[in-house]
Amino acid sequence: MNTFAERLKELRQEKGLSIQSLAKEVKIGSSSLCRWENGQADVKGSQLIILAKFFEVSIDYLMGLEN
């Protein structure tokens, strides 16, 4: 699994959110979130910004460029 997928899943679980509830919070389709967590699709820049802001982490952290 890629680092982004692992970190997205970890952050979502830390907040106690299901994929569906996260999708509602950030206004991103649950199918997209599911594919990202399973490493089946790449995230677009604008969606990456939304996720980083929601989880209060850097994009570099989400992408595995920093710890």
Can you describe what's shown?
The protein is mainly α and 67 residues long. It has five helices and no strands.
What is the radius of gyration computed over CA atoms, rounded to a whole number of angstroms? 11 Å
- Give the end-to-end Cα distance, rounded to a whole number of Å: 17 Å
Annotation, overall tally of beta strands: 0
Weakly predicted, low-confidence segments: none
Order of helices and strands: HHHHH
Q: Strand-residue fraction? A: under 5%
Structural class: mainly alpha
Name the overall outline. Answer: globular
* Largest sheet geometry: none
**Overall pLDDT level:** 94
Percent helix: 55-70%
Number of helices: 5
